[in-house]
Amino acid sequence: MITQIKGLHHVTSMAADARTNNDFFTKALGLRRVKKTVNFDAPDVYHLYYGDEVGTPGSVMTYFPFPHMARGRPGTGEVGTTLFSVPEGSLGYWQERLAGLKIDGLKADEAFGEKRLHFAGPDGDGFALVEVKDDDRAPWTHGGIDADHAIRGFHSVSMRLRDEGATKELLTFMGYQAVESKDGVTRLIVPGGNAAHTIDLETLPSINRAALGAGSVHHVAFAVENRERQLEVRKALMDTGYQVTPVIDRDYFWAIYFRTPGGVLFEIATNEPGFDRDEDTAHLGEALKLPTQHEHLRAVLDKHLQPLEETVQA
């Protein structure tokens, strides 16, 4: 069994408009944009990262905003809902805030003894806020939301599957333990992991497979401490028969990827070196940072990429 995985690292999704995406996460949800860079494989498209002050693993939502991308089709074989942790007693505040901003899909419910507020992102993305009593992670409070209500980071992700069996077996091998099953949902946690240590598996045997598009989660990343631990995980997965990519340098972490039996793309990402490797913490996410291989495109990209903030006319 793998013991090096500590919970979620980041979740990466697709969007249709960069500015709308940026406004939603930095203004509506009050998160910090911790990095403004580009897609390694498509440098004419942003890669935007949102999280807490420093982009702590387990707090970072990332996006590839492909202009005018068609919406994805929800279904099985994907992360259906990404859930964020908020302080106990704060959902009333969020209900009022999100309703005032005309956010779609607001619905309150409860699962596994936790109160939740579901809502949709700009592209129909599935999100929820979950009240957590003792989440002591420091929130980002410069986005207009005070510490009594601000998002702490991820609570969990919920995967929609036609059959949970093989994915549950994989997650168990990855160090997760099933703790409860109710209403077709199985909850797993990593004992001793980070605060984003929960995965829910929702079994929907009659639902068609999802189609990737704007609003879809592209992949979910799990955290390991460093490159040494990552190589140990890679070997264990390959020894078990999984086809795992070589280690890829993503500038702010190293990554490996593999497709799960249920269809969800998994990444294992290192906690090192972090988002402050090329920017001072006080100015994270302000300047456009380019991978070395794309630096020669800077002049072109500066003109091509959509400004994330509205320019003020003199």
From TrEMBL:
Name any one GO molecular function: dioxygenase activity
**Which keywords does this Swiss-Prot/TrEMBL entry list?**
Dioxygenase, Oxidoreductase
Under the heading Pfam families, the entry gives: Glyoxalase
Q: Where is the VOC domain?
A: 7-132, 153-271
The cross-references to InterPro entries, in alphabetical order and at most eight, read: Extradiol_RC_dioxygenase (IPR052537), Glyas_Bleomycin-R_OHBP_Dase (IPR029068), Glyas_Fos-R_dOase_dom (IPR004360), VOC_core (IPR037523)
Q: Which domain of life is it from?
A: Bacteria
Entry keyword tRNA processing: no
Q: Which Gene3D superfamilies match?
A: 2,3-Dihydroxybiphenyl 1,2-Dioxygenase, domain 1 (3.10.180.10)
Which protein are we looking at? Answer: Dioxygenase
Q: Which organism is it from?
A: Metarhizobium album
